[in-house]
Amino acid sequence: MFKKMAQNIAESASEVIGRGVLVTDENGIIIGCNIKKRVGTFHEPSMAVMRENKPCVTYSEEAKKMPGVYPGYTLPIQFFDKVVGSISITGMPEEVERFGLLVQKQAEIMLREQAFLESNLMRERALRDLVENVASYDGSQGMGDLITLQGKELGVTLTRCKDALVVEMKSWKDESSENAYQIMVRELRSAFSHPRNVICPQRNRRVTVFVTPNRLGTNDDILQNIEEAAKSFVSGIESKGIKADVAIGFPATDLGGLSISLRSARDALRLAGQLRMSGVISARNLTSETLLDMLPAGRREEFANRTLAALIGRGDYEEMRDTFLGWCESPFASGEVAERLAMHRNSLQYRLKKIRALTGKDPWNFKDAFELWAAFVLKNISGEETKNGE
C-alpha cells in the first residue's frame, strides 16, 4: 500500500511546501519523488533516520560524500507505531527544517486514510461475497456452517436476520449517479439503523439489506415495520430528487429462509419492473405473478396471445388491460374501483362487458377472471422481456 501511494505523497507534499520531496521504503530506496528520475535510487541518509526513528539534517558537505544525495531534512514515516519508510525535503536544512513536521504528518495521514479506505473496500467485497453465498445457499449441500462462520468473521449474525431487502436507485436529479447513490446509501443506513442490520452496497446501483428486527413479534409485525421504514426511506430520498424501488422478501427464520427471502426480493424487484410497479414492493404480494413467471417463455406467450387474441392490437388494449387489472384488486367494490380509475361506475361496467364480448371470458366468473388476469400479467412480463432483449 505504501509503495503504491508514495509518488502521490511526494508530489502532494512538494506542491504544498514548494520544495523537492522524496519518499523511501524501509530499505532506503526512493519510491516516490517530485523528480521522477530519482525513483529507484538509494537515499543513504534515510537509513540512519529509520534506524534511530528520529529526523536528521544533511548539510552540503555531507551530501557531497553520498552519491545522488542533496542537502535537506529527512524524517521517519510511522504507520501504526512501525517505521515503514522516510520522507526527505530538499534544500538548505535551516530553510526546510520548519516544513518537517508538516510533511511527515501529511504523509502519515494519507497512509491512514488509504488504509481506512482499503479496509472498507475489502469489507464491502467480503460482504458482497457473503450476500451471494446466502443467495446460492442450498441446505442439501451442507455449506450452512461455512456461510455462518463467514458472517461471524465480518461481525454478522445471520441467524438474527429475519428478512432481506433489495434496493435499486432508479432516477436522480442535480447529482452525478455516484453522488446520488452515496446519498441513497447514507439515507438507507439511517432508515435501517439497527447495528445488527447488514447493508451491502452492490453493483448496478443496488443495495442488499439483511434486516434484524428492532423488537420481536410475528412475521406480520416484522414485515409491517419493515414496510413502514421502507416507505419512509423512499419518501425521504424523493425529497432529495432520488427515486428508488425497495423489494421486500419473504420473512426468514434461519439461513435457508434468509436465502429464500433474498431470492424472492430479487424476483419481486425484477417482476415489479416488468409489471410497471414502483416504490415499496413486497414479494408476498407477487406470489401469483412469481408462479406464472416460472412457466416456460413459449408457453407463457402462447397462452397470453390465445386468451387475449381479440384484444391485442386494438387501440384501447392498454385501457382494457388497466381497467380489468384495477377491477381485480377489488372485484366486489365497483364504486371504489371506478373512483380509483377516475371513471364512472357505468363506464367500468361497460368495459368489463366489452372484455367479455371480445374474449369470451366472463370477468364475473372466477375461473374466467383468473385466466384473463393471468394472460394480462403474462403479456406484461413477456412484453418487458422482449423490450429489454431478454
Describe this structure in words.
By secondary structure, the protein is an alpha+beta fold. The chain has 15 helices and ten strands. The strands form two sheets. Strands 2-1-5-4-3 form a five-stranded antiparallel sheet, sandwiched between helices. A five-stranded mixed sheet has the order 7-8-6-9-10, with helices on both faces. The two termini are 42 Å apart. 34% of the residues are buried.
Order of helices and strands: HEEHEHEEHHHEHEEHEHEHHHHHH
Shape: elongated
DSSP summary: helix tally: 15
Q: What Rg, in angstroms, do the CA atoms define?
A: 32 Å
Would you tell me the structural class of the helices and strands?
alpha+beta
Instruction: Report helical residue fraction.
Output: 40-55%
The portion of residues forming beta strands comes to: 5-15%
Mean of residue pLDDT?
A: 89
The largest sheet, given as strand count, sense and whether it forms a barrel, is: 5 strands, antiparallel
Number of strands: 10
Residue windows where pLDDT falls under 50 for at least 5 positions: none
Strand order of the largest sheet: 2-1-5-4-3
Distance between the termini: 42 Å
